[in-house]
Amino acid sequence: MLKKFTLVLFLGLAPFAVHAAKAVPNVLGSWVGLSNSAVIGAGQHHPEGNENEIRFRRVEFTLTIDRQEGRNFSGMFTTASHKEPVVGAFAADLKSGVLADMDGQMSFRLVGKNRMDMCYTHTGVANTSRVAACNELVRK
Q1: C-alpha distances in Å from residue 126, one per residue of 12, 101, 104, 120, 130
Q2: Which end of the chain has fewer CB within 10 Å, C or N?
Q3: Angle at 96 between CA 95 and CA 99, to 5 degrees
Q4: What CATH number is associated with residue 54?
């Protein structure tokens, strides 16, 4: 009877032990990539353009993550024309999550130890531009 109880207890707790052992990925460092951006108007990372002009751009972005505590992290998102702070958090799967800057949101997914897919949007509430962009970032 004790063997059965031990087996049931082990099988019942095993999924929790596996989940608890899952380590949060380290995302510290500089991540670089070219965006595929659809832009209306002019904004901080896309300064050229008229108010209602639609443009398709490829811009080099660098995400430098300099602080991480568990599933949360922060850093700087930079292009040649602008630099702004970002904060981020991992979802429970520890592969995907979100980031926020001063006027928009990003979703991301780790697709390898040093590769990250990221998509960004902002809708012009704080400024006159609208942006939809996706990047594949590589850690340098």
Answers
A1: 50, 12, 9, 15, 10
A2: N
A3: 135
A4: 2.40.128.20
**Residue 39, in any domain of the structure:** yes
CA distance 109 to 91: 10
Place of tokens 């991301």: 108
In a domain, 17, yes or no: no
The total domain count for the chain is: 1
Phi-psi region of 107 (alpha: psi -120 to 50; beta: other; left: phi over 0): beta
Q: CB–CB of 46/57 below 8 Å? A: yes
* Strands 105-112 vs 96-100: parallel, antiparallel or unpaired: antiparallel
Instruction: Answer whether residue 127 is part of any domain.
Output: yes
Joined tokens for residue 29: 């460092």
Q: What is the pTM of this model?
A: 0.78
In a domain, 28, yes or no: yes
